[in-house]
Amino acid sequence: MEDVYILGIESSCDETAVSVVKNGRTVLSNVINTQIPIHTVYGGVVPEIASRNHIDNISDVTKKAVQDAKIDLNQINAVACTYGPGLVGALLVGLSYGKALSYALKKPLVGVNHIQGHIAGNYITYPDLEPPFLCVMMSGGNTQIVYVKDYLDFEVLGRTKDDAIGEAFDKVARVIGLGYPGGPKIDKMATLGIPNIELPKTHIEGMDFSFSGIKTAVINLHHKEPDINKENLCASFEKAVTDMLMEKVKLAVEKTNANKIVLAGGVSANTYIRSEFEKLQNQGIKVYMPDLNLCTDNAAMIASAGYYNYINGKIDDLTLNAVPNLKL
């Protein structure tokens, strides 16, 4: 069987990323231009600024990705682009560039769901990983438990009813003065504290989540007691959120009898959450965690997901549009 080369493009938020991946698992290049320093000034991502920076960066990022991969652009078999979910302006930059490449090179266009991309990041970290498995998707925009029955067959068992887990981390960090991006800063500060503050946990029937209540509780507590120990507050918030996650994951394991759990998304880089999931291995459940550089947004995961779409005949035409609220 001949090798299949996919060029992946990711621009759903504030990372302009392009990657070339061989056979869905081998990364030949993975170039990321991050805008974090630009948006830190504003305390979060400003969509219009993100879009403009994608326009400025995408050509250079693509050229570097092709150079790093040491292939000719005509060698690629298809162009895979994120078309949702995400910020509509940001999505349109990567998608429009991908369409232009597809047209110019006369190569197929493959639209990729950003969430599917995060799941596929694990195929790169673990070349032997195959479905079926449970995936716990945790990011700034999405939190859901997905039963991955096959490479293109997904069943969403539960999702957040309000804030995504990463959004809750960012908002709490902003209020207590840690700044943006909040997740890594709370993670670091929590290691210095002890989880000795009782925080309310929202319990919803089934496998859905709600993180707005605990976020609001932490914010109100900080306003009420501005001198509260921030290290302990971060540790308590992190533990309570993780407890809520684990409660739903155990329900999902009972429902599916899955013996493999895969983490995905930016929040899967959190050290405490990782350590709690590792404990499941004592119960005979194999836990997979993406490499840290594949947790946050990148194009290698999009190219990997694009590969499985491509070999299964899921090709799109040039009328494909961005879908900011795309579901899995």
Write structural notes for this entry.
- There is one protein chain.
- The chain has 328 residues and is α/β, with parallel strands linked by helices.
- The chain has two domains: 134 residues, Nucleotidyltransferase, domain 5 (2-Layer Sandwich), CATH 3.30.420.40; 160 residues, Nucleotidyltransferase, domain 5 (2-Layer Sandwich), CATH 3.30.420.40.
- It contains ten helices and ten strands.
- The chain has a five-stranded mixed sheet with strand order 3-2-1-4-5, sandwiched between helices. The protein has a five-stranded mixed sheet with strand order 8-7-6-9-10, sandwiched between helices.
- A hairpin with a 4-residue loop joins strand 6 and strand 7.
- Helix 4 crosses helix 10, helix 5 packs parallel to helix 7 and helix 8 runs parallel beside helix 9.
Task: Describe the SSE topology.
Elements: E1 5-10, E2 15-22, E3 26-34, H1 36-40, H2 47-69, E4 78-84, H3 88-105, E5 109-113, H4 114-125, E6 133-138, E7 143-150, E8 153-159, H5 165-175, H6 182-190, H7 212-224, H8 230-256, E9 260-264, H9 271-278, E10 286-288, H10 300-311
Parallel strand pairs: 1-4, 4-5, 6-9, 9-10
Antiparallel strand pairs: 1-2, 2-3, 6-7, 7-8
State the share of residues found in helices, binned by percent: 40-55%
How many discrete structural domains? Answer: 2
User: The CATH topology of the largest domain is what?
Assistant: Nucleotidyltransferase, domain 5
CATH architecture of the largest domain, by name, is: 2-Layer Sandwich
Shape: globular
The CATH homologous superfamily of the largest domain is called ATPase, nucleotide binding domain
**Spans of 5+ residues with little confidence (pLDDT < 50)?**
none
Largest sheet, strands/sense/barrel: 5 strands, mixed
- The count of β-strands is 10
Give the SSE order as H and E letters: EEEHHEHEHEEEHHHHEHEH
CATH class of the largest domain: Alpha Beta
The structure class reads alpha/beta
Proportion of residues in extended strands: 15-25%
Instruction: Round the Cα radius of gyration to an integer and report it.
Output: 20 Å
Count of helix runs: 10
Arithmetic mean pLDDT:
94
Distance between the termini: 30 Å
